[in-house]
Request: fold
Amino acid sequence: MKRVVSGIRPTGFLHLGNYFGALRNFIKMQEENECFFFIADYHSLTTHPTPTDLQSNVRNILIEYIAAGLDPEKATIYVQSDVPQVCELSLLLSMNVYIGELQRVASFKEKVRRQPDNVNAGLLTYPVLMAADILLHHADMVPVGKDQEQHLEMTRDFAQRFNHIYKHEYFKLPVAYNFGSELVKIPGLDGSTKMSKSDNENSCIYLSDTPEVIRKKVMKAVSDSGPTEPGQPKTQAVENLFQLMKAVSTPETVHYFEDQYQNCAIRYGDMKKQLAADMTAFVQPVYERILELRDKDDYIRKVAREGAERARESAAKTIKEVREIIGIKSF
Ligand code: TYM
Reply:
C-alpha cells in the first residue's frame, strides 16, 4: 500500500480551492492507500499568530475533513501539534537547507510582500516543516493544489540531500497525488487567479456556505461587458467563471455557455445563476454533514485523539531511525 500525506492550515473554513486541490476523491484515495491527513496548526502561526480562533479553526477543519468524506476508521486524521516529533525532524532537516534557497521560494516572497511587518523565521523555514510533515510518514504521494508544487519539489530535494549526506537511501521522494489530471488552481470570484481566503472573503465559496450565501457571492462575481466579436479572448474574470463552471457543472452546461460566449450571445446573469445552482448542489451534501458533525463533540475529540496516537507511532519510528542514521545516540 502506498502512503499519502496531506495537510491544511486552520486559518478559516475550507473553500472550493482546498476541496479540488487536496480533498476530492477521498473515498477512492483512502481505500487504495494508507492516508495521513493533518491540520497544520504550527504552519498557521506564521500568518495567524494570535490564539483567538485557533482552537475553533482546528475543530472546523477536523469536521470538514470528515464531512468531505475522510473516514477516521480508514485514514489517520490528526492535528500537527499533537505530533511534536515533526519539530525535531524539521530541525534536523534544516541543518542541510540553505538560507538562499529558502529566500527564493515564491510563497516566502509573496508573504514578505503581504506582511512586511511580520517576516518571521517560521515563514522562511515553512518549506522545511512541510517537508518534515511529509517525510515523517514516508509519503509516496501528496494531494495538493498547484500552489504547493514548489514546496513538494523542495521536499524531494531535502529528502535526496539527506540520503546523499548520510549515505543511506532512507527517505522516499514523494510526488503529487494529482487525481489523474494536472494539479489544479481554482480561481476566485473576484477576478484573481487563485481562490484564497486571504484576498477577499467574497471571492471564496466555502463548503459551509448556505445556498443563499453562495447565490449572493456568485451573482456579485466580477465579469465584463461581454464579447463584441466571435472568438474574442476572454478576460481573466470571465475565464475564472468558466473554470469554476468546469469544476462543478456538467460538460454539457459548460459547452452551452462556451457556445453562447463564442456567438456573443452570452448573458452573464444566466451563467451565474446556473453556476450558483451547480455550486450549491455540489456543496450541499458536504454542508449537511458539517451541520450534523458540529454537535458531535465527543466524536470529534475521539477522532483527533486516536489519530494523534497513530501518527505519533509512525513519527516515533522515523525519528528513532533518523537519529541513528545521523549518529545521535544517548549515553
Ligand atoms: P493551504 O492550507 O493553503 O491549502 C490547503 C490545500 O488546498 C490547496 N489549495 C488550492 N488548490 C487549488 N486551488 C486553490 N485556489 C487552492 N487554495 C488552496 C492547497 O494546494 C493545499 O493542498 N502548505 C500547505 C499546508 C501543509 C501541507 C503539508 C500540505 C503543511 N504541511 C504537508 C501537504 C503536505 C498549505 O498552506 O495549504
Summary: The radius of gyration is 21 Å. The chain has 15 helices and five strands.
